[in-house]
């Protein structure tokens, strides 16, 4: 979605006051829960969390997760004005409210006709053709606009394609203003960033673990084949774990900036954490390579040439093939990804870095800080293009980006990298690559191996909670 200054909403819900209001589309979430959508379950697990105040549209709930959330109603007051109401249901996290609903049904019907019209130019003639279901779908956006009028920053969560596709149109046209319409997957990611930005670290809706506990348990849940070695004085895997945890922190820090209005301050912060993250990823590669050399006694190659990149570590990788063919094949399968990251490393480490630029897409009413690829020298840009083309990447359904954060990937025009999406994709790939790499080195799943140990029960329970209910953008890649 379009970055807006919503993560910095001025409130503190730690005392139970003024939580973030989350309006959910009941009919849409009914369908998603029935389909077993993990993101729907994660979002609704936090309905009673004190950081949030959930309400829902008045459709009939078909799941207990929705039944416990109070609905809004639209009522007519004695003076004829219409108001949106929700009554306190006795839960601590729900409050009564009443907001003026000043939108005319005729105006909502016209917007509905436009949104559902096959012919946008002729939508005005189809005002009377909209169905009650279509009208109810769009009316939710107007209700959310009324609720959001006094305190921008609240969310509307839906998985309806028609609403998500038109979310920036709603903001720029009618009802207008900041609406923050998100899909379920986006909401899992955003709600997690929102609470961690406020230094609240929830492993589950009712368990906080502190900053260290969150990133430690998240790392262990994502890479369960990492083992804490007894003698860690010079153990490469200890360096691996430190880099990985710092990398997860860096992704969150970039995310905090992405969900603010971009300016010089956010651009500087993004540059700092993006540069750090690139170095951390290559550091993870280096520690895995060094651990491999140690395990297989590959000691006839100078340390600086022990690398997973085939541009630098060709002789090392040849010896890895002799020692463990499956591991060498695993590295080869990810070589485009490895080399893509290594293309960026000299830019941020040795060549004075880059300057983030502000990109505005007026057609899509979308703005973000980006890295212009024409800032690369020609050789690096050609290499980036070559490796990127070997990576599976798809357009995002509701934003003008790919999953890897590429905007306008027209190489005649060089293109741009949006740092947050790029780093999320890079780390998701790293999680899967590293966990499988450790397996091929002979490390079993630590969590499953110790699940029955009484001594580690609390640790494993916390990892399980994060896997099952954690608000993290990496929930899709839990092993």
Could you write a compact summary of the structure shown?
The chain is α/β, with parallel strands linked by helices.
Jot down its keywords.
47% helix; 18 helices; 479 residues; four-stranded antiparallel beta sheet
Structure report:
The chain is α/β, with parallel strands linked by helices and 479 residues long. 47% of the residues lie in helices and 10% in strands. The chain is built from 18 helices and 13 strands. A hairpin with a 4-residue loop joins strand 10 and strand 11 (366-372). Helix 9 (210-222) crosses helix 10 (236-258), helix 12 packs across helix 13 and helix 14 (335-349) packs antiparallel against helix 15 (378-388). The longest helix is centred in the middle third of the chain and has 32 residues, at 264-295. The model has no long low-confidence stretch (mean pLDDT 88).
Could you tell me the strand content as a percent range?
5-15%
| Strand adjacency order, main sheet | 2-1-6-7
Radius of gyration: 25 Å
* Tally of DSSP helical segments: 18
Shape: globular
How does the helix and strand content classify structurally?
Answer: alpha/beta
Considering DSSP H and I runs of 4 or more, what fraction of the residues is helical? 40-55%
Question: What is the element layout, followed by pairings?
Answer:
Layout lengths: L19 E5 L1 H9 L3 H8 L6 E5 L7 H4 L5 E4 L5 E5 L10 E4 L4 H12 L15 H16 L7 E3 L3 H5 L1 H6 L8 E2 L1 H14 L4 E3 L2 E2 L1 H13 L13 H23 L5 H32 L18 H10 L1 H9 L1 H15 L7 E5 L4 E7 L5 H11 L17 E2 L8 E2 L1 H22 L5 H4 L7 H13 L10
Parallel strand pairs: 1-2, 1-6, 6-7
Antiparallel strand pairs: 3-4, 4-5, 8-9, 10-11, 11-13, 12-13
Helix pairs in contact: 2-8, 4-5, 9-10, 9-18, 10-11, 10-16, 11-14, 11-16, 12-13, 13-16, 14-15
């Amino acid at each position: 979605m379009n970055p807006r200054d919503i993560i910095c909403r001025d409130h503190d819900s730690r005392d139970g006051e003024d939580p973030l209001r989350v309006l959910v589309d009941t009919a849409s979430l009914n369908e998603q829960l029935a389909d077993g959508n993990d993101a729907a379950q994660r979002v609704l697990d936090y309905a009673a969390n004190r950081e949030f105040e959930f309400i829902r549209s008045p459709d009939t709930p078909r799941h207990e997760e929705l039944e416990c959330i109070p609905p809004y109603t639209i009522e007519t007051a004695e003076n004829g004005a219409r108001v949106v109401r929700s009554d306190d249901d006795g839960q601590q996290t729900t409050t009564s409210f009443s907001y003026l609903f000043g939108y005319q049904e005729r105006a909502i019907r016209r917007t509905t006709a436009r949104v559902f019209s096959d012919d946008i130019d002729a939508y005005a003639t189809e005002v009377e053709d909209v169905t009650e279901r279509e009208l109810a779908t769009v009316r939710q956006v107007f209700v959310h606009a009324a609720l959001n009028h006094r305190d921008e920053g609240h969310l509307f969560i839906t998985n309806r394609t028609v609403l998500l596709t038109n979310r920036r149109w709603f903001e720029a046209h009618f009802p207008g203003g900041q609406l923050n319409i998100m899909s379920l997957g986006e909401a899992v990611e955003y709600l997690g960033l929102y609470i961690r930005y406020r230094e609240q670290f929830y492993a589950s809706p009712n368990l906080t673990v502190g900053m260290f506990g969150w990133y430690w348990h998240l790392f262990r849940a994502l890479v369960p084949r990492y083992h804490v070695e007894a003698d860690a004085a010079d153990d490469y895997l200890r360096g691996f774990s430190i880099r990985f945890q710092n990398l997860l922190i860096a992704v969150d820090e970039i995310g905090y900036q992405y969900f603010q209005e971009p300016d010089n301050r956010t651009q500087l912060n993004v540059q700092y954490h993006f540069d750090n993250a690139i170095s951390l990823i290559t550091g993870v590669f280096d520690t895995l390579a060094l651990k491999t050399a140690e395990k297989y006694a590959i000691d006839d190659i100078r340390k600086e040439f022990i690398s997973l990149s085939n541009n630098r570590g060709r002789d090392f990788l040849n010896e890895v093939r002799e020692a463990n063919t499956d591991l060498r094949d695993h590295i080869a399968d990810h070589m485009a990804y490895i080399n893509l990251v290594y293309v960026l490393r000299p830019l941020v480490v040795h060549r004075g870095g880059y300057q983030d630029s502000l990109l505005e897409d007026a057609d899509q009413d979308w703005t973000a800080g980006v890295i212009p690829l024409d800032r690369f020298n020609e050789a690096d840009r050609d290499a980036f293009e070559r490796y990127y083309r070997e990576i599976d990447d798809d357009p995002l359904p509701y934003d003008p980006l790919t999953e890897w954060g590429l905007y306008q990937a027209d190489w005649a025009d060089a293109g741009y990298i949006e740092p947050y999406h790029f780093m999320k994709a890079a780390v998701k790939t790293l999680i899967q690559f590293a966990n499988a790499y450790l397996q091929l080195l002979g490390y079993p799943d630590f969590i499953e191996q110790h699940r029955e140990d009484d001594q580690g029960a609390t640790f494993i329970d916390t990892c399980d909670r994060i896997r099952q209910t954690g608000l993290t953008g990496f929930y899709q890649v839990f092993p």
